[in-house]
Amino acid sequence: MTTAPSKWTVSDIPDQSGRTVVVTGANSGLGIATVEALAGAGAHVVLAVRDPKRGEAAAAGVDGSVEVRRLDLADLSSVREFAWNWRGGLDVLINNAGVMNIPESTTKDGFETQIGTNHLGHFALTNLLLPRITDRVVTVSSGAHRIGGPYIHFDNLNLTGEYTPMKAYGQSKLANLLFTLELQRRLTESGSSVRATAAHPGYAVTNLQSHDASAVRRLLMRVGNRVMAQDNKAGALPTLFAAVQDLPGASYVGPDGLGEMRGAPTLVGRSPAASDPAAARHLWTLSEELTGVTYPQPATVDAA
After folding, report:
1. What residues does 22 pair with on adjacent strands?
2. Which residues are catalytic?
3. CB burial readout 246-264, b (16+ within 10 A) else e
């Protein structure tokens, strides 16, 4: 009689002592669960948050080495300040922060808020920190990358005149995967050992659902949260798996259950639109133009 292989959990995270990790959007939801797991495994974890007071309150409950730094991904000046103030090396950057299905609005720099926060802010942050990063970049996407077209509206990235909350969210999550694809191509081309991976949590309870622009969707999500969703600790497992396991570059991790809604982390597929190298390059070029941030020389051996 054979024994079925055990499911991957936080207890399978290798010792992270001596490693430094940045987690964006780290004061609640998937972010704080990610922080707790990595700090518990010995890493020094930086909570990169928009509201330092809330970040400090969250950090106070974490057992391990943590610190809080301000980062507003909807403000490129804040992104630049965070990166400019970084000293020393950085093993892992986890691009976790995000907004979902919110009413139409813009960032400080004039971008539609979902593409501006979920993609462009993380695009700028990653490239500004890349000379410091020595292991990998993990970007949190969503099964919603399959909705909203699915394609990038290159001629109208802000969806001006055609905005709907779900279309904008789906576009931003598709952008996360195209960003990972092109980042890995560039890393490989430059001979860097740094890897770009992506993950999605399935259906997990977070505070994102409470900000949905639709009262009907908010009600449906409250019901779904009680009946179907997994908690934030389970939802963070794909991100953690993508951050610490020995995976190929451009890997995409999600839950192994029905419809990738819940379950243990495993490698999952992405949509054809999220696998298009031409679209990935086009998005990268456009993102450089919009943010003024370009691909740097990534870290090689030592980040002083």
Report:
1. 46, 93
2. 169
3. ebebbbbbbbbeeebbbbb
Q: List the 195-199 sheet strands across, edge first.
A: 65-70, 44-49, 20-24, 90-95, 133-140, 195-199, 252-255, 265-267
Peptide bond into 103 cis (omega under 30): no
| Most distant CA atoms of the chain, gap in Å | 62
User: Residue 120 and residue 76: Cα distance in Å, rounded?
Assistant: 9
Eight-state DSSP code of residue 267:
E
Cβ contact 227:82 at 8 Å: no
Tokens of 237: 């497992």
pLDDT one digit per residue (tens) for the chain, 304 residues: 444 467 999 999 999 999 999 999 999 999 999 999 999 999 999 999 999 999 999 999 999 999 999 999 999 999 999 999 999 999 999 999 999 999 999 999 999 999 999 999 999 999 999 999 999 999 999 999 998 667 999 999 999 999 999 999 999 999 999 999 999 999 999 999 999 999 999 988 665 544 455 555 455 545 444 545 699 999 999 999 999 999 999 999 999 988 889 999 999 999 999 999 999 999 999 999 999 999 997 765 344 4
